[in-house]
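Researcher: I'm comparing several assemblies side by side, and this is the next one on my list. It has 885 residues spread over two chains. Same procedure as the others: predict the full complex and return the structure.
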Amino acid sequence: MSAVPAIELKGITKTFGDVIANQDIDLSVYRGEILSILGENGSGKTTLMNMISGIYYPDSGHIFIDGEEVLIRSPKDAFQYKIGMIHQHFKLIDVFTATENIVLGLTDGRYDLAAYEKRVQEICDRYGFNLDPKKKIYDMSVSEKQTVEIIKVLFRGADILILDEPTAVLTPQETDRLFDVLRHMRDDGKAIIIITHKLHEVLSLSDRVSVLCKGRYVGTVVTKETDEMKLTEMMVGAKVDLNIHRSDPVNPTPRLIVNGLNCKNEDGIPVLKNISFTAMSGEILGIAGIAGSGQRELLESIAGLQQLESGEISYMNPASGETEDLRNKSPRRIRELGVRLSFVPEDRLGMGLVGNMGIIDNMMLRSYETGRGFFLNRTAPASLADQIISDLQVVTPDAKTPVRRLSGGNVQKVLVGREIASAPTVLMVAYPVRGLDINSSFTIYRLLNEQKEKGVSVIFVGEDLDVLIELCDRILVLSSGSISGIVDPRSTADEKSLKEQIGLLMTKKVEDAPATAANVKAAEAAEAVEAPETGKEETERE
Amino acid sequence: MIIFSFIRRAVMQGVPLLYGSTGEIITEKSGHLNLGIPGIMYMGAIGGVIGGFFFEQTGADFSHWYIRVLAILIALFCSLFFSCLMGLLYCFLTVSLRANQNVTGLALTTFGVGVGNFFGGSLIKISHADVPTVTLTKTSSCFAKHLPFVDTVNKMAADNKCPKILAELCQTIFSYSTLAYLSIVIALIAAHVLMKTRVGLTLRAVGEDPATADAAGINVNRYKYVATCLGSMIAGLGGLYYIMDYASGVWSSDGFGDRGWLSVALVIFSLWRPNLAIIGSFLFGGLYIVHNYIGGLSMQAQELFKMSPYVMTLLVLIFVSIKEKKEALPPAHLGLNYFREER
C-alpha cells in the first residue's frame, strides 16, 4: 500500500433538483487494495461512483488523484486518469461484437479490428478470462457480458477500477471466479472499489469498507476488525435483526400440483422440460437456478401467461375443497374461478407496475372493475396505498408521485405490498429483493414469512443462495428448463456444502430420458409425503 | 431495345431516392428518425433553383467553361446550404430542446414544402413567366453533362460502325450525369464508413445506445448534429438532381411528388445499409415507372403500380420481424431523445 491514495474525495456534494444524493462525502482508496462501499438503496453509492467516472459532475467538493487535484468533467477525462467503471446495468451494445464494444470510444491508433481482437485475447489469457472476442453481445450470458465490461476498462489501461454490484447476476461459482480475478488485479497494484449489498462478500473480499447512509458518509473501517452486525448498524444507523426466523410449516396440504409441464418459447426452443412438483400450503418453496433457466416461464405458466405444450397444473381450492384445472386458462379466468395467484414478475416496472402512474393508480390496476357503475372507486385504493406506505415504510413524497421516480427498493415494496393485500392462497414472487438493501430485504422476507404462517403457499424464485437456504422449506433447482434436484435446506448443518451442492445442481446437465424418470420420482415423493421431510430423501438421493 | 430504356429511366428515377435514403440512413444511425426528409429534399431543390435563377439573371455568358463551373458551384452551394439549415433546425429542436422527433419531422416536411413553394412562386413572379414554372435551361445543361464518348459510340452505331447492342449497353451504363454517379459513390462511401471505420462504429453506437456511447467518452450530441446535418445535405442533393437533371431545370410547385416518402421507405427496405439502398433505389425507381411500359393501363391501375414500392417495404418489414435478426433491425434508440442526467 502506498502512502498517497490513488484516489481521494473531499467534501463531495451532488443534488438532483431538491433531492440530495450525496452530501459532504470523503473517501480514499490506495493502490493494491480493495475498498467496499456499503449502503442501503438510495444512499448515493452509485451517484458517487458516477462522479468519479465522469457521468455526473459534483456540485461541490474536490477529487484528488495521486495527491493532485483533478477535474473529471466527462467519462473521457476519467479514462485519462485511468479510472474505469463497470456499471451495474451493463453499458454494452447488443449488435456489436465483444471487441467492437471494447474499443468503442477509443481515439488513438489505427482502427484495425483484427489487431484489436488479438489484444483482447491477450488480456483474456493474462487474467484467465474465457471469452470469444468475435462473439456478439446478444449471444452472451450475463457473466460473459460482465467479462466484456471488465476487459473494456483493462484494455484502456485502467488502474482504478470501480465495480457497481458485480455479483448481483452471477452464480456462486461465477462470483468466486470473479473474486479470484479481482484479487489477482489487487496484487497487480490496482486500486479497486466494489459496491455490493452482500455483507459476506464484503467481508471475504475487501481490505477496507466505507459506509454511506442516506447520502452521507458514515465512516470507514478495516474489514478484519469488523463483522456483519457492526456494518449493518453503521449502514442503517440502528441495530437490525439479521436472522430470518423460519418456522416449521403448520399442517401442510398440497395446494398446487404441477405435473409434466413442457413449454416452448417463441423460437420453438423448449424452455420448460417435464417439470413436476407440488407446492404445499404454509411452506415457502424456493426455486434456484441460473438466470434464464426457466424460472420466469414456470411462474408465468402457473399464472396463466404462458402457452403450454403439455402438462397439468391442478389447484386445490381451500375454500371449496375442489380441484381446479389451471391449464391454459387466462389470468382473468383463473381469478374468476376463485383461484388467487399473486404474481410479482421479475421485471417489476415492466409487468408489475406502471411507471408513470402513482401508487394509488397502481393499486387500482387490481381493483378497477369495482366501483359504482361508470365511475371508479378511488377511496379503497387510496387507503390501501396509505397503508402500504406506512406499513412498509415506503419513502415517497406522496401516494400520487409516479412510481418510476421511487428508488428500486421502494418500488418493490409497493409491488409486493399490493400483491399481499389481495389475500392470496398461492403467492409467487420472483427476485423480490433484487437490488434491495439489507433493511428492505428483511422487510420483504418478514412479509413472506407472515404469509407462510397464514397458510399461503409461497413460491420464491431467488438468486442469493444464502437467503434461499435460510428462508425456504424446500429448494427446487432448475437447470436449463429441467428440475435437476430438490434440496432440503434443513438437512445439512454445513451451509457451505449445501451451497456447493445447489451450485452444482444449477449447472448440471439433465439428460432427457433419465431426467424424466427422476422428475416423476421427485414429484411422486413430494406428493406422497406431506411433511417437510420430503426434501431430505431427495437430497440424499442426489 | 425497350429494356435498356426502361433501365435508364429507372436509374434516373432512383437517383433522388438514393440520395434521400443515404442521407436518412446516416441520420437514423445516430438515433434520429428525421421524417422531415421530404421537406429537406424539397428545400435542397428550391435552394438550387434560387441560386441558379439569380446567376442566370446576371446574364453571365455560359459559353465560357469557368462560368459553367461557377453555375454548378453556386447551385450546389445554395442547395447544400438550404438543406443544411433544415438539418440544423431539426437538430436544434430534437437534440438540444429534445422535442418529439416524429412531430418535429412531420412539421419540417410541411414547412419545407411550404417554404419551397413560396420561393418558387416568388421566382415565377420575378421572371414574368407565362406558365407557372421556373425554367433554368442553361444551368441544367451544365449539370446534365455526360461522358463524351457515349455520343461517339451512338454515332458509330448509327453509322453501322459498331453493333447497336453495344451502343445501348454503353448508354445504359455511361450516359448519366455527374450527380447520378456521385449518388452511388456517396452511398458506397457511407456504407464503408459505417461498417469499417471508427467513426462508423461510434455513430452506430450513438444510435443503438447513447448512454453507453456517452459512458465510453463519446460526444453524443456532436455526433447527432453532424450526422443529421450531413444526412440532410446529402438528401438535399437528391432534390437538386431532380430539378437540374431529371426535370431538365424546370421547377413547378409540388413537382417533386412523393419521392421524399419513397426515400424514407427505401431506408427500411434496404435494412439501413447504404449499399443495399443502391440496388433498392433502382428497383423502386423501376417500380415507380413500370406502368408506363405496360400498355393499356387505366389511370387507377397506374396508381396501383406506383404504390408497389410501399407494398414491397411492408413485405420487407414483415419478413424482417419474422426473422428477428438483430442486425436487420433499426437502431435500438431510433426515435428516442437522449438526456444524460435523466433519472
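Model: For your comparison table: The beta strands of chain B are 133-135, 250-252.
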